[in-house]
Structure formats: structure tokens, C-alpha cells
Amino acid sequence: MKAVDNLQTAQPLSVGTTERLPVVQISGLQKVYRTGFWLNQKVVPLKSCSLSVFAGETFGLLGPNGAGKTTLLKTLLGIVRPTAGRGFLLGQPLGDRAVKQQIGYLPESPYFYDYLTGWEFLQFIAELFQIPAAVQRRRIPQLLDLVGLAQSDARKKQLRQYSKGMLQRVGMAQALINDPELVFLDEPMSGLDPLGRFQMREIILALKAQGKTIFFNSHVLADVEVICDRVAILVQGELICVGSLDELLGTTDIYHVKGKGGRFDALQRWVPDLEQQGESWYGQLCGDPQDFLMDLRSMEARLITMDLTRQTLEEFFVQQLRQRGIYSSQ
């Protein structure tokens, strides 16, 4: 993967050498929409959200559909005005026009001028940022190579002939055309095949290595677990937890057991989420492993495997939704 040259000199913000710089900072952010014929009904997609994202971090925002993730991103970008609360990007209030020169954004479902070719579209975006033509000629092929479109005849092919995955890739390229300090990505893995997802992860990690700050939404929790320094979970407009994976998932040992035969009602005392397939069973052990092993004979069960693992982000995410009655396994 080729490194991409810097287009502009970032304006450094004064900060102590040992101090962590909040690049994104919001406090009590709320958004209320009024609906209905008389505008007498309220929809509240964001409820007093507060968080900080620091320079150089890769920050993942998780949540079920309708949680308010896209509304939060659009509010941070100044596309949507907050009803209450305040926020800052790169030290400036939300909506500051000068800050937008240092921000890149990939929407969830990008829609571009479909009669333009990929090359022409990137030229158009570069002109909006007043990037010199000489820099454009160097920068655009680098970006097309970075997102895996260098061999797809992007110079001649119109965007209306692009697949969803190709549009996602050119969308990532336009988000980086101005060499931003802060990049917002709304579902960047959407529409990509497994190879495309891997390449997108590599791009995000390459941006992180350059010291960029990345703030993104995703439903692909396995990717978030690999990429992110910290994550937040947004549920029904509220941020219910924010932290690193170690802080959220903890270091508690989790045992997954698999066996055969036995009295299933007795086994469920040890394995509450017991799953059965004929005579076989498996699930997560709840209790002391030594006591469980001693109790196996009385339950007339045979243990096949016992694996020690850490709770995954997906398991933690589902657990948080279940605790709030949003998701049930029944």
C-alpha cells in the first residue's frame, strides 16, 4: 500500500506534551425533531450525549438500527443543528466552516454525480478544496490505488456504472482528498465483499499510522474489535458506555464448554445458555470450573472440550441490549 503525500500543512493546536488533545468533544448534546400535522409530537434521536475523542484515536460508535448514530455524526459535522448542548471539533464550535477544511466524511449511502467518471469526481471534490492542479495529478492516482480502483478504468468509467462496493471505495477516496486530520466514516464496510472489507480495514489502519483521528459507525463488530482504540455504544439516543476494549470487556476468564449426554435440566444450572444438538450440548460456563468438573459424573454428562476465552465485543454488545430489554434470544 502506497503512502499518500500530504496536501496541506495542518495547523497545530497548542497543547502540552503530556496532555491528551480532545479532537471531538461534546457535552449534553441533544437533538429533538417535531413531527405530526401540528408539529406537536417529539422524536428525540439524541439524549444528552457527552464524550471526548482524542487525537490519533480510532473511535468506533456502535448501536442497533435507529439508535441515533447517523444523527450524531451529522450533528458533529454541522449538517444537523443540535437542540441543546454544545460540542467542539479540533477546538472550534460545531459548524465552524474553517474546520471543515480539515475534515473528511464518507456517508453511509453515498450518492454522487453519476455522469462523472471516478477521476472527474475526485477532481471536482479537489476543486472544492482549492487543491492545486499539479497536486491533484499526483494525489488522485495515489488515492485510487489506495482504495483499490487503480485497475478498474476509473478514469473513463462513469459512476453510474460502478457497483455499490466501488462507490464505497471512491467515497473513501473523496473523504481523503484534502488530507484531513479528522475522518468521519458512516458504515465504511457497507456493500463490500470480504476482500473489500479487509482492504478498508487496512486503509483505516494506515490512516491511524499517519496520526489521523478516525470516528466511524459500523455494524461489523469483528472489524471494530480489530481496528478501534475505544468504542461507545449508543442505544435509543443515549450513550450507555464508552471505553477501551479492555475497560468494557474486562479481563475475566470465560469458559466455553462442549459435551455429550447427561441431564439437561441439571446442566443448565451450570450453562444457562445451553444449546442442544441431539445428545450434544455447548454453551458458556457459569460458576467455578473445578466444581463443574466434579459435578459432571452426578449429571451423567461427558465433557468434550473446555475453552478459555475473553468475552467478544459482539457478546458484550448483545448483553447490553438484553439488559435494557431491547433484544431477546427467545
TrEMBL record:
CDD domains per the UniProt record, alphabetical: ABC_DR_subfamily_A (cd03230)
Matching InterPro entries: AAA+_ATPase (IPR003593), ABC_transporter-like_ATP-bd (IPR003439), ABC_transporter-like_CS (IPR017871), ABC_Transporter_VariousFunc (IPR051782), P-loop_NTPase (IPR027417)
Domain called ABC transporter: residue spans: 24-261
Domain of life from the UniProt record: Bacteria
Organism the protein comes from: uncultured Synechococcales cyanobacterium
PANTHER family in the record: ABC TRANSPORTER ATP-BINDING PROTEIN ALBC-RELATED (PTHR42939)
Gene3D superfamilies: P-loop containing nucleotide triphosphate hydrolases
Alphabetical list of SUPFAM superfamilies matching this protein: P-loop containing nucleoside triphosphate hydrolases
Keywords: ATP-binding, Nucleotide-binding, Transport
GO molecular function: ATP binding; ATP hydrolysis activity
The protein's name: Efflux ABC transporter, ATP-binding protein
